[in-house]
Amino acid sequence: MNLPNKLTILRVIMVPFFVFFMLTDVGGAANKWIALILFIVASLTDLLDGKIARKYNLVTNFGKFMDPLADKLLVCAAMICLVEMEKLAAWIVIVIISREFIISGFRLVASDSGVVIAASYWGKFKTVFQMAMIILLIADLGGIFDMIGTIFVWIALVLTVVSLLDYVLKNKQVLTQGGM
Questions:
Q1: Residue 54's domain spans which residues?
Q2: Contact, 116 vs 64, CB < 8 A?
Q3: Which EC class is the enzyme in (predicted)?
Q4: Same domain for 115 and 166
Q5: What is the largest CA-CA distance in the chain?
Q6: How far is 93 from 111, CA to CA, in rounded Å?
């Protein structure tokens, strides 16, 4: 297994630890900061795995498939925690998670035809904004950062819809051939 794939697996392994520190008070006030650090490190593995894979020609079908799933797991877990903590509206998370299920379904249909649908530019851009939004909401710094966090929530929501439309339009041929 190559380094980018190991980084993807590391991101998946970090998710339960992140959730633990987000939703428990075992470490007291330090929990929020531990969770934030875990989320930032996990997010950085997303940036690194792709860059390393492309730079050193280590792109694999496993990476194309697992990297977006690891992103979804991390981001969805974080957003569900933020709903539980009443820092993010549930309806926004439902829209975002619905998009993730739809795209995952498209990927499954495409894989039946032997096609791997890699992450798109819009999908990557959406993920970056979602991760930045989550960092701002977890940090909960107050003041202008609350407003910036709110703006990032709305940008992430718009990018979620735009990236969904982008995937559907770019892959409609694969989807219609797959029986959809």
A1: 1-86
A2: yes
A3: transferase
A4: yes
A5: 54
A6: 27
